[in-house]
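Sharing a chain and its predicted structure for anyone who wants a worked example. Both blocks are below, sequence first, tokens second.
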Amino acid sequence: MSVLGVILVLLFAAVVFYVCNWAFLDTRFVNTNQAAWNAVVLAGGLAGLAAAILVPVLSIGLPLGVVLFAAASISYAMHRNSLVTAPLRVLTGAHLERFRQRVLSRRAEKADAGPMSGAGREIIFMGFDDLPIRLELRSPAERRALAEVERVVHDAILRRASTIGYLARPGKGEVKYRISGETHAAADVERPAADHFPAIIKRLAGLDPAETRKPQEGRVRAIVAAQPYELRIKTAGTIKGEQVAVRVIDLVTSQMRLEELGFVPAQVEALKEALGVRPGLVVLSGPQDSGLTTTLHACLRHFDRYVNNIIVFESHTDVEIENVQHFLVNQEDGPVAAAEVRSHIRMEPDVVGFDAVAQPEIAALLAEAARDHTVVVGLRAPDPTQALARLTALLGSPRPLAERLQIVVNQRLVRFLCPACKEAYRPNPDFLRKANLGSARVDLLYRPPTRPPAQDKPAVCPRCKNERYVGRTGLFEVMPLDTVAREMIGRAAPPADIRTYIRKSGARNLQELGLQMVIEGRTSIEEVLRAIKETT
């Protein structure tokens, strides 16, 4: 082999090494099958090098090796591109242009391209122009503060936190997470990074870092494991320093369909059937923070949004549904809010949604709209009977419900036991009898760990970080109404009698379905009782 041939083979080997190392880092970033795809790229590289070295004619062996390696690399690139948003895709026209700008730019740090693919990074902040955000950092303290912001947000997302709280304390910044409805302390931010922590967050969200007293609101996107999240940021000044609250919105989870919320199959079918009745009224109910808005949005996504004109009224909008018109309504405005609702309903929508009706005039407008449209109404109530009673009180008469009501849904959010550290135990026979499970064969139930971990296990559970629960699901009671049930509503029968009648047809309540989850080992008795007892 000539000297030129050796140089070409060495250059090819360097490219193989670079791409294999990039793929190793990138598979972690996009959260794909790391072992399988690393093996594919590495096998392609080794086959390519073998062809380049072993084939006697370099003009044949080297192109053959390049083709073998390119096939493996492009296969991975196409796979990972399907998992990420457009700005993070590789080997596209935009990516090649960014690469050209980086090569030609004398100051790469001023290029607006941001990270090329995210390889080797755990989190990337994105603007709403779909370009990664790059901040000009003027000091080591600012660089450390950005690293702390990335650490806190990445950790919060991995732990499924819905809110991040930051409060300035003497000598440090205190961080807390809201996870599955409970507050958990997180690692503090030490000085000097704590001094710049709020300013870095504000710069990421496009806010004014110099304004430290007046409240500000902004938002930014974050990409973690190739999944997009939206961060809603609020800042305010205190006498001790700035306070920051970050609402974390999972843009994938927030788009869930009805089948993914936790309904049992029979409940999904009953709800879909009720949503298909036009005109008709569907009532969703639950206490505060029970996932009512998520269920409302899933109901609206059930309709064909390209055929139907769909509108929804909300007190605030965290997630927008594509091809659905969102209108903000403050029910405390009284007649003004009712007039706004009336004006939009006059535009003849096919489907109307309302997240939590509380005003009699608005309730009457929605009941009237149910004469001609499908109306999905949210209501704060601890159970279906109280939902019926409260809606009847808002309307002043049961007649509209007797004519148009199709179904009443009540819900809670129940946490899943951590599968890595949940503890099995034998239930008390007396408890099984009280829970009407005496005839069922239940040998073991599960609960959060009550004993220290064994010596061969880590002190901190790697799955839940000793929080005992991982993730949540909906727990639903569904009351479909037939002609007899609507007649009972019309003659003002007690809601408890209506519920009893519907249960005779096989409808199951929250306690029964919660106990079924306990038997299946998905949650604990204590968690089900906590969820069911929520009334506000």
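Comments welcome. The longest strand covers residues 405-417.
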